[in-house]
Amino acid sequence: MNTVVHSLNNSLNLARLNNIRKCASTAKSIRQPRRWTKVSIGALAILGAGGTAYYYSIENQERRKMKVLVGGVGRFLRSLYIGMSLSIDYKWTLYGLVGDEYDKAAKPVHTRAAQRILEGCLKNGGLYIKLGQGLVSFNHMLPKEYIDVLVVLQDKALPRKSDEVRQLFLEDFKMLPEEMFQSFESEAISAASIAQVHKAVTHEGQEVAVKVQYIDLQDRFHGDIKTVDILLYLIGLMHEKFDFSWVLKDLAHTLESELDFENEGRNGEKCARDLKHLDYLYVPTIHWNKTSKRVLTAEWIDGIKISDLDGIKKMGLSIKDINHKLCKCFADQIFHSGFVHADPHPGNVYVRKSEQSGKAELVLLDHGLYDYLKPNQRKSLCQLYKAIVLKDEANMVKYSNELGVKEWYLFSCCLVQRMVYVPSRPYKFNFFDFSALKKLSVIGKKALMEEVMTLHDELNDIARSMPTAMHWIFR
Fold this sequence. Notes:
By secondary structure, the protein is of the alpha+beta class. The chain is built from 18 helices and eleven strands. Helix 2 packs antiparallel against helix 3 and helix 8 (217-238) runs antiparallel to helix 9 (245-257).
């Protein structure tokens, strides 16, 4: 009996011991993650502190590149969100609508789309504002709601902090702007896509406009180009008829050259030489000793934008005269010199009254973006215009082909912004007579929409085929 009791006690003790071991093992397994959690938090804290210490130990330029890298992710996601929002809004709101019902519903969609694009351009800055300005310049093609909203991008963007301007001057000139100039207004008078303009006075007493490039723009340019390229590709996948990524590839080199302000100064001087026979055209003088690749100092100009019709009338100037002079100026560039100012929005063309003649004088600003039409291209283009005026169908075909475009009729219509009548191509609709299009019946408007859809691919082919420099002429 004693042996049995002793055996039971031993069994109970062994069971208790096993339970204690299991509990200890469980407690240990519970404590282990906590210990590793503390180690992980500690490691992250050390890494964070080390990263912060490294960030503040490197030069300002290297810090800027790190910010650009992080900011690029944000710009991509913001742009992707806006692109998706536009696509969904258009598809959801306008699906199945035609005629007056479509027109009525489209206006608020256009406005919302333009507002989203404006917000994205302003937040992203740099290249995005330049692209937004490009949209505004297509005022003959885009809905009015886009132009009304995006027009602010022509001369207003996001001004930068004054310490960025000071840092850029130290990097480029080894001195502060207050040292380089007798006076320098730290608050920018205008801010555009790639730079902001400050008013200053030289030590010789001359008033000048100092164009200062955004300090991080060259660091982020290639990344932004790649981002927009990816977005255009994605949109092209969603909308088969939307394929304009090739445009960006053609323009990337041209836009990159715009970041070189020394090149802009040289462009301005060449423009002045090419048009010196036009006594009503003026190009501001460059102060080369105060200019670098990121800072351009030029003569200060007092004038008004060419789009300010009320201001022009108050100055007692003739709008008809100004229109003639503007056309002559750019016709000379397109057909004679071939060296064409590629960004002629109203913010870059000023009007002032000539002290000598009392008539209108045009001042051409911002010479960063130029393209060149080759002599054979200029000759073919000139002959094509002549053929359109004379309604010479055979030569329209010939000179359109010389410019690389097979769809000669539609190309001719786009070139002169009106329907061109030739016997072989009677047209159903005059796409440039908006008042007549609005009077169409519901059936007529439905037929018009079908016609427009068939023209889309042809227009895309024309844009692909023509010389790249001619894209600026269509603007």
